[in-house]
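Q: What does the assembly look like in three dimensions?
Context provided by user:
Components: two
Sequences:
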Amino acid sequence: MRAGLRLFGSLLGIVPDSGDPAVVPYGEMRGVAFDASTYHVVVEALDRAPWRIGRLAKRTMPFLEELKQARLALVASYQAQLEDVMPHIDELELQRLSDEWREGVALPAAALEKRSRGTAARLLQFLPTEERRVFVAALSALFPEPPRLGFYHSAERSQDPSETRPFEPFALFEKAAGAGFAVAWEGLGKMGTATYVFRGAEPDLAARLNASLRAIRFAREPVYLSEAELVTTGEHRHYVPLLRRSKELQFLKEQFAGRALHVEPETYPARVAALCAGKS
Amino acid sequence: MPNYSVRCAVTHPSESEGRPVPTTLTFTDADGFLSTDGAPPLQFDLAEVVGAEPLEDQLRLVLLSGLGVRLTGLGKVAAEMTAGFLAARRDRTASSFRFGRTIGGR
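A: Here is the predicted structure of the complete assembly.
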């Protein structure tokens, strides 16, 4: 297929002339090489056949080098981010960890604790601002099980020259609610001003929501704004095509129960509890 | 804002294709516009172009709604117009799908 290629901060974007775009996150690349026999750039990625990129002519080698550099830059800064919260593990362990705890993937706190004790506590206590910590503590009290925790690449953060880590930490809290489950998505950094609550019957609801959030790069507006509002105000109009083209966004909107704004810490637990129970 | 004088046939999925008529194609980094004498311009979001097939001296588009657009009579601007339109469509699609900030591209 004929397609346009673009390198972004955390992924290779492939926009074909026909059909939906595809992405290859740098964190999922297993190899980037040049095949001299076919003059192709070959990108090996997790869980799929290698991408073979050809017809680049004299742009082949520059593209190969740019892709390698972009991937290296992301992986290096991501491993540094993980090292911040797991300061006691060695380089080999860190390499293996970055393969499992990939950018955008939230792992259960118990799995992180096995790797390095105290990781979940460091994430939940030290990364949120003092103001945010009150709401995170309330979620920890509302959800009996420890959350899944992860970091996603933030385009906004990467454009801020004062930011040394372009990753936003986040948590997915999950519990049984009625006949199904409720999941709360909480940002642990500076971004976002609300907790997003989802409900569904799927036993793997948190993992499915995580995969869907990764697919839309953790955008909040297309999840919580109604289609009518998105279309009418024009402020987030670029998300309107996504509403119709992304199955993952459709899934998120179907499961979305509501959001609890980070205001009034006294009433916040009751608001989250009501959303989890299906009472908005 | 690039604009090109072309001929264009717009076809609804349930209709057979009509005769191409003189049209001006204009596009920004977000939208495409087809302006034909005697009718308001037809606007579409570039991220809603799900098919863009360049052929010899023509460009065939398919919109998310199923609407088909055939642009012909491109003449000597064919290469420039097609390249510019396809690049704008790719960037808009990447923005809609929130790929992030571009650091390079082909």
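Follow-up: Residues 60 and 70 of chain B are 5 Å apart (CA to CA).
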